[in-house]
Design brief:
With 151 residues, the protein is mainly alpha-helical. Helix content is 61%, strand content 5%. It has one domain. A two-stranded antiparallel sheet has the order 1-2.
Length: 151
């Protein structure tokens, strides 16, 4: 009896085994990686949209990219505010630049349509000047006498 008691007393105390499916005591789960994709996508789309906004014929692409950059920027800032991302500045930059790209894209589109409309009217005037038969009649005249809008 004394021998068995001595073995029990000399044996180091063991921690009880954790229940299956539970982590051991003192264990903390690893921190998840930041999800920075939306902020990075916002800035990337805004920069690409800036290139497209400088050309009047591709203004519509800039408008689409500007809207996408703005929405991804808002989403990225929301993730950063909740602590799921750590690139709030990149997301804010994408959001601001996306707004600028949207406005520049709209200006480029308007400029493109004005150029096309002016070219059409100039070609029509040249055609009428050199004896081209036109079934259209002028509805409004400019101050210089040229036709502004045809019927």
């Amino acid at each position: 009896m004394t021998l068995a008691l001595n073995r029990l007393l000399r044996r180091p105390l063991r921690r009880p085994r954790p229940l299956p499916g539970y982590p051991p005591a003192g264990w903390t789960p690893p921190k998840p990686e930041p999800r920075n994709g939306h902020g990075t996508a916002a800035l990337t789309m805004a920069i690409i949209g800036l290139v497209f906004s400088l050309m009047p014929i591709t203004g519509w692409i800039a408008v689409i990219l500007g809207l996408l950059a703005f929405s991804f920027g808002i989403s990225g800032m929301s993730r950063a505010h909740k602590g799921r991302a750590d690139n709030k500045g990149v997301a804010a930059g994408g959001c601001i630049l996306g707004t600028v790209v949207f406005v520049l894209g709209m200006i480029a589109m308007i400029q493109f349509f004005v150029i096309v409309n002016d070219t059409q009217h100039k070609l029509q005037d040249i055609s009428n000047q050199y004896g081209g038969s036109s079934s259209k009649t002028c509805k409004f005249y400019n101050s210089d006498g040229s036709c502004w809008q045809y019927r």
